[in-house]
Design brief:
24 strands, about 45% helix, 6-stranded parallel sheet, extended, Rossmann fold, alpha/beta, about 10% strand
C-alpha cells in the first residue's frame, strides 16, 4: 500500500518528483559538501524533502496502527455491553401467597371518626387500649392477635366487625366469625347484636347466627351443595331425636360420647363386615382374647406386696370361695354360660393351689368368675372374717401378679352376656368387649376405640388406611391387630354411612373433601357459598387441627383464584384473615389440635403483609393470679415476649393457695365464698371427684340449680370445659399430669410433620407441655381467689411429670400449704 503524496511546501514539490538516480546523486554530492563544510542549497532541499517524506511515511504507518488498535478496543467495548444479557431462561416465580397485595382503605380521617364514635357510644370501661386499636384497625390482608387470658378480645373483635360493616360497607355475607363452642358462640352473638344497635344497626338473631359460626356449621352447607348430598347428615351430630336443620348446626361435634343412633350405625357396619371379611373376623378373635384376659400387675406393686403374705391362707379357703361365687352367678341366671365349659382347673400360685371356674376352647383360655359390683359388698361365707368381695380381691391380685396362663376374668353378669354373644359369633350388638389402646387412660368398647383412633388420625389430615400402612409395632403388641382391623373397618364404615338414606358422613371426611388435596371440589361451589370465606375472623385459633388448617388454606386459595368476579358490585373486596389465640391455652392436643399453626402463623398463611398484635392487658385477674399461672407454663414452647399485666382498677392480690387433697376442707371453703356472694367455679380432672364433692356441698348445689341460669353462682366442670369462663373464686381439684406414653400417636404425629425433626416421641413431648397449659387455663379462670387441691403421689403418678412440679418455693404469688413426708409445710 503506497503513501499518498505529502503536502510539501511549494519550493520542494519539484524535488519530490525527481528520479531515484538524481536523488541518490544529490545525496552523494551533499555528503561531500558537508565534509568540505560548504553548503549546496539544492542538495539541502533534496535531503529535506527526502526526510520529510520518510518521516511522514513512518508517522502514517504508526498512526494507522495506533488508530486501528484504539478503534478495535472501542468496538470491543460496545460489543461487550450488548452481550451482557443473560443467556439463561429462568421460569417465573410461583406466587404461593393466599392474598392479594392490598390494604383496607383506612384514612386518618376515618380512623379519627371511628375512635370518636367509640368514645361516645361505649362506656369508659369498654374503651379499647392502644394494642386493641391496633387489632381493630389492622389494614393488612392477614393479622395474628396473641391474646392472653382475660384480654378482652371479644369486645375488640365485635368492634372489628363494626368497622368492616358500618364504616367500610362490607356485606355480612362476605365474612365469617368462627368460635369453637356453642357457649362461646351464643355469648358472642348476644354481644354483637347489642353493640350493633349502638351504631344504629338492627341485627336480627338469624343474621347474627349466619355470621357467627363454628367451623363445622360453615362446612356442612358446602358439602350439602354437592350432587346427591343435599340431605347429608353429620355422623357426629346424628340423633334419633332431631333431623337435619339448625339444631344440628348448633350441636357440638366435640362430644366424644357415642349415642344410640351412632352406635346403631357402628354395629350395623360391624355385623356385615364380620360376616364378609374373613381376615377382619380373625383379627377380632385375636383382639377379644387379649382384651378379656386378666391384666398383669408388677410383683412390686403395693397391692401385691400387701396380699402376697396371705397366699397360703387364701388357698386354703379357695374352693369354698369358688362355691360361693358360683352360687351367686347361678342365682342371677348368669352361670353356666354357653360356650364355656364349667370345669375347675388347678393353678399353682407361689406353691399354693387355687382354682378357676371354666374353660373356653375357642380362645384356649381359662375363665374366672368375679364378684358382680351390683351384689351386696357385705356378703360373706359362713364363719369367714372377710367378705366375699374382699376374698375375691385378694385372689384376683395374686393371679394378676403370678399367673401367666391365658385367663379371662368376668367381672360382672353383664360382661358375661357380651362374652356369650361374642363366642356365639353374634355380631348384631358389636364386638361385645372393651379394648385399651396403649397410651389411652382407660379401656372402652372396641368400636368406640375405632372412632377415637380414626378421628385422631384424620384430624391430623391423614387417611386412616394409609397411616396404618406406615405404622409399625412389636410382634407381641396386640395394637398391630387393632390398627389392621381399624383400617378394614373404617373404610367400610364410611361407605356404609354414605349408603344410608339420607346419606351420613363424618366431619373429618367433609373437611377432606374440601382440603388442599381436593381443589377440584371447590369448582362445584357457587359464589354464594364461597363468599363468606372471603373475610375470616377466627377465635381460639391455637386449637385448630391440621385438617381444619388445610380447609382454610384451600378456601382462601379458591377465593383468590376467582378474583374480582367473586365480588362484583359489592363493598367487600378481595380476602383477609384475622386470627385470635393464645398458645398458652392450647389444651386439645389429645384430639389432634396443635398450637404450632398459630405459633408459625406467617409460614402457614403466607401473605404480602401481616400485622402482629400482642394483647397483654388482663382485665380479669389480679397480678398474683397472672404471675402464678405464667410461672407454671413458662417452660412450655411458646410465642416469645409474652408477659401479661393486670389492667383496670388495682385490687388487693391474693396468692394461689396450693393444698393437699382435702374434700371436706374444700367444701367448707367453697361454701364460705358462696355465702359471701362470690361466684364459684369448681374444676375437676375426674368425674368421680365431682361426685365426691357434690355430696359435701349438696345443699348449695340444690339452691343454685333452682335459680335461672344467669343468676347461678356455682358451676362445676372439667378443666377443659372451663375455657372462656371466670369466677371470683376458683377451686382446682387434681393435678395436671402426663401419665402414659402413646406409641401410635407418636408415629402419627411424625407422619403429620408435627414436633421436632429428631424427636421420636413428638406427641408425648407435646403432651408434657399441654399439662402445663391446662393448669394455666385453670388458674386464670380466677378473678380474685384460687385454691389448688393436689392429690398425693401414688404408684402410677410417681414418675410422670406434673404441673404442680412447677410451683417451686419462695414465690409471693404461691402459698404452698402442702405437708411433706416429715410433716412440715412445703414452700411458703
Amino acid at each position: 500500500m503506497s503513501s499518498p503524496t505529502p503536502d510539501l511546501p511549494p519550493e520542494l514539490l519539484p524535488l519530490a518528483h525527481m528520479s531515484l538516480l538524481k536523488r541518490l546523486a544529490a545525496r552523494f554530492f551533499g555528503h561531500g559538501l558537508t565534509r568540505l563544510r560548504a553548503q549546496h542549497r539544492a542538495s539541502w532541499l533534496h535531503g529535506q524533502a527526502d526526510g520529510f517524506r520518510s518521516g511522514h511515511t513512518a508517522g502514517f504507518d504508526y498512526g494507522y496502527k495506533e488508530g486501528k488498535a484504539e478503534g478495535l478496543e472501542e468496538g470491543r467495548q460496545v460489543l461487550l455491553i450488548r452481550d451482557s444479557r443473560s443467556t439463561e431462561h429462568p421460569a417465573p416465580q410461583v406466587d404461593d401467597l393466599l392474598f392479594d397485595d392490598w390494604r383496607l382503605p383506612l384514612t386518618a380521617e376515618l380512623k379519627k371518626r371511628v375512635k370518636t364514635d367509640v368514645a361516645r357510644l361505649l362506656p369508659p370501661s369498654a374503651q379499647p387500649s392502644a394494642a386493641q386499636w391496633k387489632m381493630i384497625l389492622s389494614d393488612t390482608p392477614s393479622t395474628s392477635v396473641v391474646a392472653g387470658a382475660g384480654a378482652g378480645k371479644s369486645t375488640t373483635l365485635v368492634l372489628r366487625i363494626v368497622l368492616l360493616v358500618h364504616y367500610l360497607g362490607f356485606e355480612l355475607d362476605s365474612m365469617t366469625v368462627v368460635t369453637f363452642t356453642r357457649e362461646s358462640r351464643k355469648d358472642f352473638i348476644l354481644k354483637l347484636i347489642e353493640v350493633f344497635a349502638l351504631w344504629g344497626h338492627t341485627l336480627s338473631l338469624q343474621q347474627a347466627r349466619d355470621l357467627v359460626r363454628t367451623f363445622h356449621s360453615r362446612l356442612l352447607p358446602m358439602v350439602r351443595s354437592l350432587p346427591g348430598l343435599e340431605r347429608l347428615q353429620a355422623f357426629e351430630t346424628l340423633s334419633h331425636r332431631t333431623g337435619p336443620g339448625d339444631a344440628e348446626l348448633d350441636s357440638s361435634p366435640f362430644d366424644l360420647r357415642i349415642n344410640d343412633a351412632q352406635r346403631q350405625q357402628l354395629n350395623a357396619c360391624y355385623r356385615v363386615l364380620y360376616q364378609r371379611d374373613e381376615r377382619f373376623c380373625e383379627l377380632i378373635q385375636l383382639l377379644s382374647r387379649h382384651a378379656l384376659q386378666l391384666k398383669e400387675l408388677e410383683r412390686d406393686h403395693p397391692d401385691v406386696q400387701k396380699r402376697v403374705a396371705v397366699t397360703e391362707l387364701a388357698a386354703q379357703r379357695d374352693e369354698e370361695l369358688c362355691d360361693s361365687i358360683e352360687g351367686l352367678w347361678r342365682r342371677a341366671g348368669a352361670w353356666p354360660i354357653k360356650g364355656i365349659e364349667p370345669r375347675r382347673q388347678r393353678f399353682e400360685i407361689n406353691g399354693s393351689t387355687f382354682h378357676c371356674h371354666g374353660y373356653i376352647a375357642a380362645l384356649d383360655a381359662w375363665v374366672m368368675l368375679g364378684f358382680d359390683p351390683e351384689e351386696d359388698g357385705r356378703l360373706s361365707r359362713s364363719g369367714a372374717k372377710l367378705s366375699i368381695r374382699a376374698e375375691w380381691a385378694v385372689k384376683r391380685t395374686l393371679f394378676q401378679a403370678f399367673c401367666r396362663k391365658p385367663l379371662i376374668w368376668l367381672d360382672s353378669y353383664e360382661s358375661s352376656k357380651r362374652v356369650l354373644a361374642s363366642l356365639a359369633g353374634d355380631a348384631s350388638a358389636g364386638p361385645g368387649f372393651d379394648y385399651k389402646v396403649q397410651g389411652e387412660l382407660a379401656s372402652a368398647p372396641l368400636l368406640d376405640c375405632f372412632v377415637l383412633a380414626a378421628g385422631f388420625i384424620e384430624n391430623l389430615g391423614l387417611d386412616v388406611p394409609q397411616a396404618v400402612g406406615q405404622m409399625s409395632f412389636a410382634q407381641s403388641d396386640p395394637d398391630r391387630y387393632f390398627f389392621e382391623a381399624l383400617s378394614r373397618y373404617w373404610r367400610a364404615f364410611e361407605d356404609h354411612l354414605l349408603d344410608q338414606s339420607p346419606p351420613i358422613m363424618t366431619y373429618n371426611r367433609m373437611f377432606a373433601l374440601f382440603s388442599e388435596h381436593s381443589p377440584e371440589n371447590f369448582k362445584l361451589l357457587g359464589d354464594a357459598l364461597l363468599r363468606p370465606m372471603s373475610h375470616l375472623m377466627i377465635d381460639e385459633f391455637q386449637d385448630v387441627s391440621p385438617q381444619i388448617v388445610s380447609w382454610l388454606r384451600a378456601s382462601l386459595q379458591e377465593v383468590r383464584r376467582r378474583g374480582p368476579a367473586l365480588h362484583v358490585g359489592r363493598g367487600a373486596q378481595r380476602s383477609s384473615l384475622l386470627c385470635v389465640g393464645d398458645d398458652w391455652q392450647s389444651i386439645y392436643g389429645w384430639r389432634g389440635s396443635s398450637p404450632s399453626f398459630f405459633m408459625g402463623f406467617n409460614q402457614q398463611f403466607p401473605s404480602p403483609s401481616t400485622t402482629r398484635v400482642m394483647l397483654t392487658d388482663n382485665y380479669r385477674s389480679h397480678q398474683y393470679i397472672i404471675d402464678a399461672a405464667e410461672h407454671v407454663v413458662r417452660t412450655a414452647a411458646a410465642i416469645p415476649g409474652k408477659k401479661a399485666k393486670a389492667a383496670g382498677a388495682p385490687r388487693q392480690p391474693s396468692p394461689v393457695h396450693v393444698l393437699d387433697r382435702d374434700d371436706e376442707g374444700l367444701a367448707r371453703r367453697l361454701e364460705e365464698h358462696y355465702r359471701q356472694g362470690d361466684s364459684v367455679l369448681m374444676l375437676y380432672r375426674r368425674s368421680s371427684d365431682k361426685l365426691l364433692i357434690e355430696k359435701l356441698i349438696q345443699s348449695k348445689v340444690n339452691v343454685d340449680s333452682s335459680l335461672p341460669y344467669e343468676a347461678r353462682r356455682l358451676r362445676q366442670m372439667t378443666y377443659h370445659s372451663a375455657k372462656g369462663l371466670q369466677a371470683d373464686a376458683v377451686f382446682l381439684l387434681g393435678d395436671c399430669q402426663h401419665l402414659t406414653r402413646s406409641p401410635y400417636k407418636n408415629q402419627v404425629y411424625r407422619m403429620a410433620g408435627l414436633g421436632q425433626e429428631r424427636d421420636m416421641d413428638p406427641y408425648d413431648t407435646a403432651q408434657k407441655d399441654e399439662i402445663l397449659r391446662l393448669a394455666y387455663v385453670g388458674i386464670t379462670r380466677a378473678v380474685q381467689h384460687c385454691y389448688w387441691y393436689v392429690d398425693g403421689q401414688d404408684a402410677q403418678s410417681a414418675n410422670g411429670p406434673k404441673a404442680s412440679d412447677r410451683i417451686g418455693t419462695g414465690q409471693v404469688f404461691f402459698a404452698d400449704h402442702r405437708q411433706s413426708r416429715h410433716g412440715k409445710t412445703v414452700g411458703g
